[in-house]
């Protein structure tokens, strides 16, 4: 006997759980908050996902996928590579400053909270960074090919350096909520890319 069919949309439940985890982090999100956020009873949640950890992993996968799609959209914009990098930084800051609760970037804060305790979070985070790095390498390679950046530069090194600065901006935006400060930093970073 197969059991009762599910009477809910997994993706909507994962989205609601992602919002709760993003708002509070893993540790501070209680089972009751997940029940309240998703509208499902504990039994249904555990039957569907097995554990709070498994639901968190699904939520993190969803966040990573939406982040990759966001970056793809920005990288498809017209203009120079520097223009697209500026757009990315400005959109990141815009997201951070429009976030009243200052949740920041779940892709950054999840591994800080969980990677040492949860190898799945560590693995998901590494895979996300690797995929994102590939996108940045392609973007910087295009800039080298078109002559926007100096020939002989290594696209992978440029991508890694930029990603460190970019994620630093996202963390810093959670601490220093001053748009003018961030805008000056963006201009300095973009100006330093040769």
TrEMBL record:
Keyword Transmembrane helix: no
Pfam families to which the protein is assigned, alphabetical: TetR_N
SUPFAM superfamilies per record: Homeodomain-like, Tetracyclin repressor-like, C-terminal domain
Keywords, in A-Z order: DNA-binding, Plasmid, Transcription, Transcription regulation
Gene3D superfamilies: Homeodomain-like, Tetracycline Repressor, domain 2
GO molecular function: DNA binding
Keyword Phosphoprotein: no
InterPro entries: DNA-bd_HTH_TetR-type_CS, Homeodomain-like_sf, HTH_TetR, Tet_transcr_reg_TetR-rel_C_sf
Span of domain HTH tetR-type: 7-67
DNA-binding region: 30-49
Record-linked PANTHER family: TRANSCRIPTIONAL REGULATORY PROTEIN (PTHR47506)
Protein name in UniProt: HTH tetR-type domain-containing protein
Species: Klebsiella pneumoniae
Origin organism lineage: Bacteria, Pseudomonadati, Pseudomonadota, Gammaproteobacteria, Enterobacterales
């Amino acid at each position: 006997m197969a059991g009762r069919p599910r009477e809910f949309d997994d993706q909507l439940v994962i989205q609601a759980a992602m919002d709760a985890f993003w708002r509070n982090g893993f540790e501070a999100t209680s089972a009751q908050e997940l029940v309240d956020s998703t509208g499902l009873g504990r039994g249904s949640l555990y039957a569907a996902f097995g554990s709070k950890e498994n639901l968190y992993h699904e939520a993190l996968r969803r966040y990573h996928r939406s982040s990759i799609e966001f970056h793809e959209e920005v990288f498809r914009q017209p203009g120079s590579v520097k223009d697209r990098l500026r757009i990315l930084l400005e959109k990141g800051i815009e997201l951070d400053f429009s976030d009243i609760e200052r949740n920041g970037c779940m892709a950054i804060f999840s591994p800080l909270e969980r990677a040492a305790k949860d190898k799945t979070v560590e693995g998901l985070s590494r895979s996300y960074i690797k995929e994102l790095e590939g996108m940045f390498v392609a973007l910087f390679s295009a800039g080298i090919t078109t002559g926007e950046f100096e020939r002989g530069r290594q696209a992978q090194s440029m991508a890694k350096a930029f990603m460190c600065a970019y994620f630093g901006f996202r963390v810093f935006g959670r601490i220093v909520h001053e748009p003018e400060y961030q805008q000056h930093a963006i201009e300095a970073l973009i100006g330093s890319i040769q």
